[in-house]
Design a protein that fits this description.
alpha+beta; 7-stranded antiparallel sheet; 4-stranded antiparallel sheet; elongated
Length: 400
């Protein structure tokens, strides 16, 4: 059974603290949702869904009733049956796991009866799980990530998109005239490389989907045809912008020597001032370790910028990793999301939901981090729980 959308409920993890929903605690389908077939949706929405949902999949959609502000959610056949079953009085089907029910309650697909009221989301989390502090940050990047969340928690309640933008942009340097003059566009960025070596080893593209936000590089030879969606691991390389003239040729050479299939670099000053200015796409955890070690050697002595909401590799923030979620894990009809955007969007949704709820003791950041962990994001590293963790990477001074 799968119900997935803006909060990615398919990844809710088993917890020993999950209460006996459906046995000791009554549960029902949220009456503010209605179940619709894909065919009944507006044409534009169906067209957006067609990129991730095939007609043969039999997928339905949960749509919030007018005024509810609930996000739409994709529902497979078994999920639709469960929602329909719990829309009527009666027992919960035996095959539905307790942690799965808890995830759907947190997602507001289901509601539980608590203190003579039907609750879901943050109120249900506070009632059933209670306040708890998230794991303490253990490295520079996790501390940066927690700082970003603390700052967003203090912001006045606004739209989730604004919160998401603040989280996603945390650590970005100001776009000053100096950097605009230095790197006005792709040609200026490409000139930082050893162009002869670059053209020998890489097929150069102007960006993803015809955009010029990124310069993209695919390795010449057998791997050149590999598509980015087939490369689930992302290796973030985050030197400071003023180090790029010295390090970009070495980065490209190290990646070519070790057979990296694809990487991208910000195509202008705006991209190079991002923390995640260089992203390498890789096949698996072992491949990521090979390239991380090679880059640690190539970048020895280079200071870090540091990418929030990515998992530390080098101990100082220079190298980190993540992994993009499935194509259908984002908001219904919203297109494919990157790892960091997915994390930041969910955090923004959870912070906003907690700020709107009349919580008694649970802080918005506690809820947002706890909910994110239930969604399949390992804390405090912000690594994707769905991918094997790279092993064999050692100290802040290098890789072993």
């Amino acid at each position: 059974m799968s119900i997935a959308a803006s909060s990615n409920s398919r990844y809710v993890s088993t917890s020993t603290r999950v209460p006996a929903i459906g046995r000791d605690i009554a549960v029902r389908a949220n009456p503010s949702y209605r179940l619709e077939t894909c065919e009944s949706l507006p044409k534009a929405t169906r067209a957006q869904l067609s990129t991730v949902v095939a007609a043969k999949d039999g997928v339905c959609v949960l749509v919030g009733t007018p005024g509810s502000a609930l996000p739409a959610k994709l529902v497979d056949d078994s999920g639709a049956r469960l929602f329909a079953t719990l829309s009527r009085p009666g027992p919960v089907p035996d095959e539905v796991a307790r942690d799965q029910l808890m995830g759907l309650v947190l997602d507001a697909v289901l509601e539980v009866d608590w203190d003579n009221a039907w609750v879901s989301g943050p109120l249900a989390y506070e009632a059933l799980l209670g306040p708890s502090d998230p794991p303490e940050p253990t490295d520079r990047l996790s501390r940066l990530s927690y700082q970003a969340i603390a700052r967003a928690e203090r912001m006045p309640l606004g739209h989730e998109t604004e919160l998401c933008a603040r989280l996603y942009g945390f650590g970005r340097l100001p776009l000053s005239r100096r950097w605009i003059r230095s790197y006005p566009g792709p040609d200026a960025v490409a000139a930082l490389f050893d162009l002869d070596a670059l053209h020998r080893d890489w097929v150069i593209g102007g960006g993803e989907g015809g955009r010029v936000d990124w310069l993209s590089f695919s390795r010449r030879g057998g791997m050149a045809a590999v598509r980015v969606p087939d490369l689930p691991y992302k290796l973030y390389v985050s030197p400071p912008i003023d180090a790029l003239p010295a390090v970009l040729p070495d980065i490209a050479a190290a990646l070519a020597a070790n057979g990296a299939p694809h990487f991208k670099v910000g195509a202008s000053a705006a991209g190079l001032l991002r923390p995640d200015k260089i992203v390498v796409y890789l096949v698996d955890a072992a491949d990521l370790c090979v390239h991380a070690r090679a880059l640690a050697v190539a970048l020895e002595g280079v200071g870090p910028h540091g990418v929030p909401f990515s998992a530390e590799l080098s101990g100082d923030g220079l190298l980190s990793w993540g992994g993009d979620p499935p194509a259908d894990a984002g908001p219904v009809g919203g297109g494919v999301e990157s790892w960091r955007l997915s994390v930041c969007r969910r955090l923004a949704e959870y912070l906003a939901a907690a700020k709107r709820a009349p919580l008694r003791s649970l802080r918005p950041a506690q809820y947002a981090l706890g909910r994110l962990a239930a969604d399949g994001v390992t804390l405090p590293s912000f690594a994707p729980a769905s991918l094997p963790v790279p092993g064999g990477l050692a100290s802040p001074t290098g890789m072993s």
